[in-house]
Amino acid sequence: xxxxxxxxxxxxxxxxxxxxxxxxxxxxxxxxxxxxxxxxxxxxxxxxxxxxxxxxxxxxxxxxxxxxxxxxxxxxxxxxxxxxxxxxxxxxxxxxxxxxxxxxxxxxxxxxxxxxxxxxxxxxxxxxxxxxxxxxxxxxxxxxxxxxxxxxx
Length: 153
Hints:
Radius of gyration: 16 Å
Shape: globular
Largest sheet: 2 strands, parallel
């Protein structure tokens, strides 16, 4: 969200996006983020997950990995549903690798790369977005090759 590309990635083809309730509540603490997320939930591009999640699984994830509520709930949803998880937090990604495997884990960079592949944005715009996310404190690798996005197009 910190590079104004949420709308971009929500337009990827054949993809549905869910947000856990815990993540929604975390995001909603910042008015501008709540406004943006509410816009996408209202138009159906983003769906707040409201179905039950196994308490035992949540407890296991909390006890095993010590993640925050949002990361724990999101991982649990993916364990139970087979969904992919998009997360940039290193600790949460490490836990998710053990619970759902790398094949079902991605981050912001891969979403931006898919947006380039689908010609939603230019590769140079994706690179600028990556730099902006890093500058704003995003949990992203600091050594992404200059052609990472452009090699996708």
